């Protein structure tokens, strides 16, 4: 019961904290805290399942004396309480989800994955309790009918396996978001758009292109473009921004940095990364990039012939 209350408390705190506004320290806000809570609850359930397995094996090897006089009544009451909890949880979650869509669709779209993962982690804790109560009822009836106490640890093993199988997808999904993993569809869109950027007149090369998820439905990116001498940087920046905003689904913000190839000679092949680089050289001063988000509509890309300076 203590562990269940702890899991519910973590889920509730994460749900409230995710709505805190962004600040200078957390510029993207606190949305990802729900994904962290979901990952923690998933690992927590795996550890609980492991302890159940160890205890069940010990009880199979050394069967304890069991009294089933009041066990059936207590477990039945516990099952009813857990079923009421599941019904209340599903009703409240469905109501909150529809309410969020009707009053703030765009925010809910960016926030959807973390919220769903957090609620899934809480739901799995309630479901584990429900399975435990059902397992106790079944094992108690079998013990009363056949007189073998081994049915109880066998039921515990079965429940532990079900819990682990249910929680593994949650752990994998939450871990992929925390590790800033892009979906294959987004990767293909970025690569296709990058090929179009390289074909723009005036673009000589692309040094680094990085994209990562702010949340599962929201993508942030940056790109460093080198242009030939005499090319208007502002036109290239506008064209690159328009291409990525048009072809990459869920792209929320992109930072486009344009630099003349005459000022910096490339000594390596252009690379493309799908994660933000953590260590930046402090000794290199680059031109000021332009930061564009979907809140500001990008200007249409100019045709290739207009990307050259006019004499």
Outline:
This protein has seven helices and four strands. It is an alpha+beta fold. Helix 1 packs antiparallel against helix 2 (33-61), helix 2 (33-61) packs antiparallel against helix 5 (151-178) and helix 6 runs antiparallel to helix 7.
Q: Would you write up a description of this structure?
A:
The protein is an alpha+beta fold and 311 residues long. It has helices at 2-17, 33-61, 71-103, 105-146, 151-178, 184-198, 233-247; strands at 203-215, 218-227, 251-260, 290-293. The protein has seven helices and four strands. It has a four-stranded mixed beta sheet. Helix 7 links the parallel strand 2 (218-227) and strand 3. Helix 3 runs antiparallel to helix 4 and helix 4 (105-146) packs antiparallel against helix 5 (151-178).
Supply the key terms.
elongated; alpha+beta; 7 helices; transport; four-stranded mixed beta sheet; Putative zinc transporter msc2; Alpha-lytic protease prodomain-like; 12% strand; disordered C terminus; 311 residues; membrane; 2 domains; Alpha-Beta Plaits
What is the strand and helix layout of this fold?
Elements: H1 2-17, H2 33-61, H3 71-103, H4 105-146, H5 151-178, H6 184-198, E1 203-215, E2 218-227, H7 233-247, E3 251-260, E4 290-293
Parallel strand pairs: 2-3
Antiparallel strand pairs: 1-2, 3-4
């Amino acid at each position: 019961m203590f562990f269940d209350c702890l899991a519910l408390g973590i889920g509730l705190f994460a749900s409230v904290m995710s709505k805190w506004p962004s600040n200078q320290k957390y510029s993207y806000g606190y949305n990802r805290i729900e994904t962290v809570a979901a990952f923690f609850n998933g690992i927590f359930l795996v550890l609980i399942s492991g302890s159940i397995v160890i205890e069940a094996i010990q009880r199979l090897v050394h069967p304890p004396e069991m009294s089933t006089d009041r066990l059936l009544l207590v477990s039945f009451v516990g099952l009813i309480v857990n079923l009421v909890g599941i019904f209340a949880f599903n009703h409240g979650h469905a109501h909150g989800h529809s309410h969020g869509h009707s009053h703030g669709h765009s925010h809910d779209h960016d926030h959807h994955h973390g919220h769903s993962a957090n609620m899934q982690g809480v739901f799995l804790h309630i479901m584990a309790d429900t399975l435990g109560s059902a397992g106790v009822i079944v094992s108690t009836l079998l013990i009363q009918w056949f007189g073998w106490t081994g049915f109880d640890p066998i039921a515990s093993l079965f429940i532990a396996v079900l819990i682990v199988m249910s929680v593994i997808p949650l752990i994998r999904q939450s871990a992929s978001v925390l590790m800033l993993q892009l979906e294959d569809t987004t990767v293909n869109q970025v690569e296709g758009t990058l090929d179009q950027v390289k074909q723009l007149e005036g673009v000589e090369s692309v040094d680094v292109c990085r994209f990562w998820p702010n949340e599962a439905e929201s993508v942030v990116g940056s790109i460093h473009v080198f242009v030939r001498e005499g090319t208007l940087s502002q036109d290239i920046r506008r064209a690159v921004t328009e291409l990525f905003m048009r072809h990459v689904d869920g792209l929320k913000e992109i930072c486009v940095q344009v630099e003349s190839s005459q000022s910096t000679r490339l000594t390596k092949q252009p690379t493309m990364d799908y994660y933000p680089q953590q260590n930046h050289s402090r000794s290199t001063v680059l031109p000021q990039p332009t930061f564009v988000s979907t809140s500001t509509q990008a200007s249409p890309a100019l045709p290739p012939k207009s990307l050259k300076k006019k004499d």
